[in-house]
Amino acid sequence: MHKDEIEGIEINLLLEAIQQRYGYDFRNYARASMERRIRQLCRSIGCHRLSEMIPQLLHDDSFLEGMIREFSITVTDMFRDPFVYRCIRQQVVPMLKTYPYIKVWLAGCATGEEVYSMAILLQEEGLYERSIIYATDFNDIALEQAKEGVCQPGRLSDFSDNYRQAGGSGSLSDYYQISEEGCVFKADLKKNITFANHNLVTDSVFGEMQLIVCRNVLIYFDKTLQERVLKLFRDSLAFGGFLCLGSRESLRFSTMENDMRVLDEQAKVYQKKVP
Amino acid sequence: MSRPRFIRRRCLKAIVVGASAGGVQALDTLLSLLPADLQVPLVIVQHIHPAEDDGLAGVFAHRCPLVIKDAEDKEEIRAGTVYFAPPDYHLLIERAGTFALSVDEKVNYARPSVDVLFESAAHVWHSQLLAIVLTGANNDGAQGIRVVKACGGTTIAQDPATAPYAAMPQAAIDTGALDRVLSLEGIGEFIRTRLRSMKS
């Protein structure tokens, strides 16, 4: 048997151990990036074989924490892909304005850059006061970081560029205060954001949303899991509600294709059809 | 000429290419040297500014008879097609013969990173992989070359003397894991010969 095939077995066993011991199910994650991260972790802690991590994982709770950190924290940019935010401003916001209350779900929000980007957009469009943003992730460490809303000053110049290209009407500096830890988003930007633990792999439908944003999360899942999550999004949307995916993700080839119409092909914004 | 017979005859399943500064020109030349009936997929990471959201496929599409496109997540990888990693995503190969994208942290300050593509390709195609490092001003690809070699694949770097930016091919050479150092024309010839030997 080839060495890579044996490693394949080791990875299966490792994922099985995580699932049975802790309930986190990574078995339907896309394999290639998962394997890369597992190999990296293995090297960084000085294990010679991937399966050497299994006993550690089973008997040491804190090992899992490190592993989850390795598996799931993806730091993203504020207003990543500015054209997506322009599309939301131009095509989604006019329809959101017709609702008395607006529920927005940012699924897989990681460290929160997109959450604050969306809060700023809603505020500038005069919608924030009647909006609730649900920001969810299965990773409590990331969620905690997102809740703090601290941004490293070194990243701000890129974020400001993105903000302007995304159609921002003020200055990004209007929204944060400088403190010892870094730049902290102001309390009035946070007041309508609810952070909550939700696992797309195992948890169920989440309210009647007007807008769901889940960008660059589905690429980490295999087709089976993608299908489950897309169904979850469809069922969590109000009729006429919007779904925004990552620019390299789509509803093509999914059974959800018939339930949603394409609002913007490039920005990957879809609208749930009214029956 | 003294190459062992088993290397010459070895079947090829895929070619992966990494390029950075000066790469667009180099790829233009390399693509023009490929046979029109390419029997394998060719997968390219060319470093590019993330804001170039149109991708590179469009730049080359009309200059080469092969099908040229951006790699899509979960897409089945086909012979005779040239794929580019989309800007701001890492491109990986799944064992099932499909692509996967990720937004994991940058590697060597780059996303897409040559190392990420090469390493994942090496674990899928093993000895049936050919990996090529072209011009560039950093050392992305060097680690990938090591892994490709360790998995039994064939490794080539563009001759730094012929590259507008020598650092990247030089870093690959410095790993000591290269089979050949060639000009672009030499690389084209190597690929054609290798593919011809598969037909016979």
Q: How would you characterize this protein structure?
A:
- The complex is a heterodimer of chains A (275) and B (200).
- With 275 residues, chain A is of the alpha/beta class.
- Chain A has helices at residues 3-22, 31-44, 53-59, 61-72, 82-96, 113-124, 140-148, 156-165, 187-190, 223-236; strands spanning 102-107, 131-137, 150-151, 176-178, 183-185, 193-197, 209-214, 237-245, 260-264, 269-272.
- Chain A has a seven-stranded mixed β-sheet with strand order 6-2-1-7-8-10-9. Chain A has a three-stranded antiparallel β-sheet with strand order 3-5-4.
- In chain A, helix 10 links the parallel strand 7 (209-214) and strand 8.
- In chain A, helix 1 (3-22) packs parallel to helix 3 (53-59).
- The longest helix of chain A has 20 residues, at 3-22.
- The mean pLDDT of chain A is 94.
- With 200 residues, chain B is of the alpha/beta class.
- Chain B has a single domain (14-199), classed as Rossmann fold (3-Layer(aba) Sandwich), CATH 3.40.50.180.
- Chain B is 32% helix and 20% strand.
- Chain B has seven helices and nine strands; from the N terminus they run αβαβαββββαβαβαβα.
- In chain B, the strands form two sheets. A seven-stranded parallel β-sheet of chain B has the order 3-4-2-1-7-8-9, with helices on both faces.
- In chain B, helix 5 links the parallel strand 7 (129-133) and strand 8 (154-158).
- Mean pLDDT of chain B is 92; it is low at 1-9.
- The chains are: A alpha/beta (275), B alpha/beta (200).
